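Re-running the complex after MR caught last week's input typo. The corrected sequence lines follow. Everything else is unchanged.
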Amino acid sequence: MNQKEPKNDEDIIREITVYEGDYVPLDKDRLVLFTVNFLEERAIEPTFDKIVVATFRLFPRKFSLIGFPEYPDGRTIYYCAYNHCTLDKKWLVGNVQSAFKVTERGKYFLDETGKMLKGKIQLARHYQVSPRRKETTFVTLLKKTIAYKKYVKGEKDRIYKSEILQALRIPPNSKDLVPTRLAKYTEYAHRINETSVLEFLKFAQGKLKRDTNAQRT
Amino acid sequence: MPKERRIEAGEIHEKFWERTVREAFKNDPLRIAIELIKNAADSYTRLEKRGSIKPPFEIFVKLYCRKRKPPSIEVLDNAEGMDFEKLKEALKYGTQTSMGEDTEVITSAEKGIGLKDAMMALEKNWLITAKDGLLNERNKHLNFATGIGKEDESISEQERKILGIKNNGTVVKGIFPDYLRERRFSTICEHLQHHFLMRKLLENEKFKIFAIDGSSNERTRLNHNPPKIEEQILDELLEIKYNNRKHNIHLSIYRGVEELPQGKPFGESGLLFYYGDYTVVDFTFCRLERDFSFSKCFGEVKMEVETLIRDPTEAPLVDEKRRGLDSEHPFNKMLFDEINLRLKEIEESEEASKYSLDEATKKEVLRELNKVYKEIKGTGLFEPPIKPMTYAFYPVYVSIKEFEPKTISLVINSTIVNDKFEISLQSTNPDIAIKKPNKIRIKEKPREKFLVKHIELYSEKAGAKGEIIASRWPYSLESEKMGVEVLENPIFSPADGFAFVPDKTSIVDGGTKKVELCIKKSTIKQYRRIALSSSYPINCPGEWLLPEKQETLQKYVVKDIVRVELPIRVKETGHIGDKAIIEASYEDRISNLKVTVVSEPLIAGLFRDIRLSAKATERICSFIHDEAVLEIYYKHPLIKKYMVKNFRRRSNFLVFIADTITREVLRAFVETGVKENSSRFPIFDMDRPQGEIEDHIVREYYEQGPRMHELFKYLAKTFKIGK
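Corrected-run output:
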């Protein structure tokens, strides 16, 4: 009789599915803390690599690389697990060499995190989904510009060319930068899946073209 | 060549003279009175030179003041008086007859202002003069015609009494033009006393000048008291060689005790240029005019230039409009160069202690600046932490120190608050106490969506652990908890039962502080004296006596420890980096405290100091990154432009300074932020960041500008001379 071999930790982790609740508003430190406990509960030693994969599998939207959603953002997870949760907040003990463990203090925050994931407590501050890399930073800045705000409000006719140039961070006398900037922003918006920004960029491109043609005629 | 057949009289329109006179006096109409007073003084001087009179010489200035109209004036002297011929000559335009201090000196009329101009400036003017028993009266019309009253008529005693002329003498009278703004007797007197042209005359003890209020006959002697001298900075005799002649110039400069007003005609800070005994020609600091660095300085330049003035072929030293010494005149140029050279030397030697800002205000501003920088380059604004559906603790776990209370919060969602809302709080460990409150009651429905209630926790037992439970029982079974741990307080475990806690400390150079000596109560016996000794540069009391009575001692006891606070101080300043030891001994127990003298530790961050600098730069202020110092260059022409009288209270100075510093500070914020890779200042094009840096500065200017302006206006108000 063939006795099934017990699954190893890696297999269990590979089978982890995405957490079903709304985890996006939470900060990444709490999600890492949750993951460490998640592994402990399943009798899996929370070593760093296991934490990376498990965190990514549970919360892929918060821990994937920009442009590569199929890969975990190990750098962010490291910062959360060691620098923040262990050294600063003391929710965990351990390090990359010794693996991690939830502390007594951490259990209270874990409990709180559980309530947050269930929606019983909301965090006043909204944490962004994508890691703070160049793409997110500049697309976020673009979303704060007058041109973009007017676009979102549906006031397309009231957007001036100068406002679009400002949104694309193009100095007034450097119109030659328009194609490269548009291409870059489009690339960034694609990577972080900002559809509304992509639409805006398409509109901006059209408007700039129209204005240039009108000037020529 | 045509032959001249007849001569037609020159035509002069009244308007021309009106304009000329107005031009001569419009900026300073008090010069009309001063000209008349000086003429009287000159007349006395001539008499004295001839040996016919001895001081004191009295001059009377009678003023009839009216509320809405300009006052009238009478200037009386009992000096030479004038006979018919001299009077006729004196009132002719372009006359060589001197009305000056020296008979040989060319009349000032040639330079635009003189007796005739002064008379023509006065409405209904009359010159009445008595000499050798004969009275002559004349006036001047605006078309320069001379009106004639009595001519060589014998003067009666009655007339002498009315005029106030005892023997020989002159009275000039008339009504001031309407551009003299002063209307009150006291104001006119005050202005005459402070006028630079009057200064030498009023300081001259030979002359007694009285102002008389025409309406009350109140008599006031006009005086000028020079500013209080702190020190004489310069006393030098210069020689200016001009046209093969040497002219002696005696230059004296003093530093006053306090800041002095600058500028003509009433300023005190400047150099008074004069010749003879009292003939003032200018009041200036040459090319360093209105330089704030000289605002405590004043002085005199006595010029032996009579020969130069007497020379009819020489251009006048005083400029045509009589504003002062003509800076284009070659003699004056040489004089100014020499004086400036010395002024520069003085300025440089005194530079180090020249200006300062109020230390306390400066530190306050620096702290605020660093706070703002930290705030804007940091992660952003602090927001309300959590929004629970019901209520929750924030934070959910806390570490407290034994014997030190700590406050935590309970955030309550106001939607659950009803009429009899009550939350009871309980500690699971009796060693951890909820000091206040034990129950949270809310009587009225709150307006806010979330309420934050503060709870104070306290424990005297290190190592205790427990939970605080908040529940609405019996109304609801739901409860919230938070974890608490009590950490050991180091003051309760002094080494050997007698120790300074902590055993190392730092103290600010020149500062004072209190250090804590902790003694286990059980170690205290009958002996009351704690002996103390310290090494240089720290000073502390030589001993400390423990209270005799147990009740008094009990006041110092916490748990089983007696806490003694000992004052220590650094002797003087200049000991940064020095280390010292304070030794405390009680019976056979000894404890040492290591003390390090440090510089002011409070200012940490991007800005460590704000310094006023005398450097001549094109910038008004600049941030020195390496030193973390903001330098303000007070010699910049634009700063000097605004640093005029009472500048600290002038909004144009304050706004200008505040705005300039704000821009520089924000530039420093952004440039440093970019250097430190602050996420507040992202750069798209790392190869060409300058344009984006400028954009960030503009954005920060709009966001932080108003706050910064207030801060720097507050600082600019403390700009002062000296340390």
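None of the earlier attempt is carried over here. Chain A has a mean pLDDT of 89. The first helix of chain A runs from residue 9 to 14.
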